[in-house]
Amino acid sequence: MDSLHLGLGFGWLRYNGMYRTIVASGVTPIDREMVEIRLGVFGRRDGRSDAATQEGLEAYIEGQASAMEQDLSIWESKCYHTRPVLGDADSTIVAFRRWASQLYSGPEAAPGAVGREARNA
Fold this sequence. Notes:
Elements: E1 2-6, E2 10-16, E3 20-29, E4 35-43, H1 50-76, H2 91-100
Antiparallel strand pairs: 1-2, 2-3, 3-4
């Protein structure tokens, strides 16, 4: 699996499993509590017939939708911590939060909102 995220709202995942696919995702904030997530799946035939490809990718998409539904309970309980406790492997989170803070206005944009010093707390 390989992924790339471009900013806060667009990313893609490339899978090489039963099917070689790219899942493109777009996330749009609706308000402080809600986001809209749109997914698009691109798959290769890899020698399969159109019917076999369609059937296999539909099953794949259903599996992805089921996995996202299972993740909803995790996402619904997440909350923002100004100074989260982070481990050494979380340095990309710190860098991403610092970069993303330029896109927000209000208290979210506060320079100290990244929380690196809370790492070793």
